[in-house]
Amino acid sequence: MITINDLAFSYKKKKPLFNNLNLKLSEGRIHGLLGKNGAGKTTLLKLISGLLFPDDGIINTMGYVPSRRKPEMLQDIYFLFEEYTLPDFSIKKFLKVYSGFYPKFNENRFSHYLKEFEINANEKLNHLSYGQKKKVLIAFGLATNTKLLIMDEPTNGLDIPSKSQFRKIIAGEIDERKCVIISTHQVRDLDSLIDSITIIDQQNIIISEPIENITKKLCFKAISSIENEEKVLFSESGLKGNWAVIENYNNEDSKLDIEMLFNATFANKKRMQSIFNNLNNTL
Amino acid sequence: MNDIFNAKRFTLLLKEQSSKNLKLFLMGAVLIFAVLFALDLLALISTGLHTLKFDVRLGFYGVGIFPTAFLLSSTWFTYLSNRAPESGNLLLPVSAFERILVAFIINVIVFSLIYFLIVLSIEILLFQHFEILYYFTHFFKYRLFYISLFLFQSFFLFGSLVFKKAATIKTGFVIFIGFIILQLINNLVMSVVFRNVHNINYSMMFFNNEAFLITPLYIRLILLWIIYLGFPLMWIASYFKLKEKQV
Asked: Please, are residues B19 and A88 in contact by the beta-carbon 8 Å criterion?
């Protein structure tokens, strides 16, 4: 679905944001894009969608060069921004004005999602709260039925019940031909939703793996004491003992803890890269 | 699928841009009407006459059209530069050509038509006079006025793509600096040509018939073509700038 080869990009000439970045994201998955503040998550999403152009390297999005912004490609991309302004329309008018741009738009699905989020379709957009507006845009984005759905911090501003609704809806939407990329700081919100993780830092990708590969190579579990320091990648003490991320030499089954993985990655970048042999990121 | 132009996409975009800006257009139209109406009325009262010379009214309308056109065009594409983008904006499935075409229709055609209707309604309401129709229907006769309006307007439209903030002021400033540079070059060239003449404002010399430069016809034709071509060329430049626009 998305292939990035040797991508270089910088906002300022002497301060490259990406250098020789390689990444492949396949369809049929929900990809979580994680990274520290300023790592370049939103920039990468913008490059994938064609809002920014690379300085060097090749980006292929669904067979198109995104920087050309061909309408045919754009009909299959929906980008939910973290920050946005909306026109002074009612939801119904918003639907009437914008749905026509997306040939596969499903109006019934839009109404269904609005109901799930408990939003009245007769409301005016500017009378809604930030979170409610976001729900309208999420509902709209899902109803566009585009192959590529990009969401930048989609759970920001959503209340707790809405976050679980969001997870439920997204999980139900994914099929073999679609690709969802979610960028977020709030890793807990993505628990049990995403099925592949990409962690980005200092010009490059540290990890880009499906969750099954991560849990094959790493084990997330409680340990009584840090017995073998070499095996432990990261540990955190809690009420019930130490929670640790360790190399999975014994092929143990464990549930991925995204936050622990994130911390382990930044505590042992090189080791993590060598564990996942992260030269060619292919998902 | 046609990547350059598609009638359905174009219609959708025209509808989107018009409905999104409808409130702004209506408020702008009311404001233009109020300002021009007030100007005419004040001039009428201050002169104490029962009518106002048509040339004076024409001056008001002529001067009024420039800032309003510049203001509209200089803000047209600035929403694409916002940090908090509107839902859709550059990723709306339309081509750059369709965007430029919609911008042209609204900024040039619809704007001129609305401005003219406002002026006509003032003329009818205050003076029961229809002569203004002549200036609209005889476009070719007054083409230099219209072309210079559209040329400056196209500069401001281009400015809305280049500058992220305060595009009106910045574009105006760039045009102003451009004029100063032209004036300096003009003076430099003239002082080279007329070496024994000093401290003379050469532009004024021409206006006062104090000096003439007899230029060959082809030079004059080239200058005229530059003026005429400047307007479409600026729109073409805006098209390419839009294609390269990054957010």
From this structure: no
